[in-house]
Amino acid sequence: AQLSDERLAGFWSQLYDTADLWLTWDLGQTRCSKSLNILVVDTVVPRQAGMRRLSGSSKTEITCPVKSVLPLSRREGMKLIDVAMASLAVRHRETIHFSHANPNEVYFVDVGEGVFVAVFGLRERQRYPLETTMGFLIISNGVPVGYGGSSILFRQVNTGVNIFDEYRGSEAAFLWVQVMRVFHALTGCTRFIANPYQIGADNDEALRSGAFWFYYRLGYRPILGDVRKLALREFAKIRTDRSYRSDIKTLRRLASCDMHLTLPGAKGSELFDERWLETSSMLATKILGEASGRTRQAAAKSVAARLAKDVGIRSLDRWSAAERRGLAKIAPIVAAASPSKWSLAEKRSLRDVLRAKGGNRELRYAQLLGQHSKFLTALRKACRVADRRT
Questions:
Q1: How far apart are alpha carbons 160 and 162 in whole angstroms?
Q2: DSSP per residue over 67-113, as a string?
Q3: N or C: which end of the chain has fewer CB within 10 A?
């Protein structure tokens, strides 16, 4: 039987993994080495006064406009993806953000002082139903110095950073704030989220490095009241005695919940609790189960057709195949928010969101989703009702 390109690629991937081949990688003088894997930049900015530090508060810096945002051509995007993948491969690492990066959606953002942040969208078939997942590579004077991934959802961004070993202990805080500055510029978000793993939960490396205090000093705060009070007490001890260090037991307790950094203008009503991603998926599964169609794919098409009618999409003939796939992917979740009862203006703006999901650049979808307060409010309500029932 003939296989689709996607299934054929998966077959070869599984076959390769099963073979368990031994590999030898002789770097030699290739650009894949740590020393030679660089991106040539027009200008090298020397440091005249030692390490770069924040001039003010992190929130002030994050909301400061970036110098420029340059969407790269496909050829330039592929070149930058190669640099990103090589920077991880030589360190025995891999991430979906680079392995499935979309060469048609790479942004090169200049934040000044020789620092650039490259942001990568995912290929259309790898995208998530609701949130937008993007990766980033931090480049200083053409040299990759760190990387990470982000999940963009309405007006919030869940993200974390990993500075390469060679560059830790110097400008990590400065570089991390520049990353948040970039995502604020791209999405207009008002909240950043750090999950427990990033600050030490089931992550001994983060515990030993004091990751909790790294985030805390930049303005992140635990979302649970008792953990926030514990952090206040511990931070008071640290400020009183510079030699004081929180013990591992205390650090594990501090890393037991999410931390949020809220920017000026952030509203509690804009928060979409991440546990509702699972709830919304459950609601979507229920809607698919009730739809007509012998297969999940057929059911998804049925739900998408019904949703299109509910929001006033007269025809999908002018939509690309990728846009129709994007609609089928997100439709069951949107249907859970009952958009058929919305106003004409709310339906009109939702149509733009739905079409952007499968567009060439998913960032456009993330921006439109962040502006659709009606969808956020309705989906929050549906998730809360579902949670109470379970």
A1: 7
A2: SEEEEPPHHHHHHHHHHHHHHHHTTT---HHHHTEEEEEEEEEEEET
A3: N
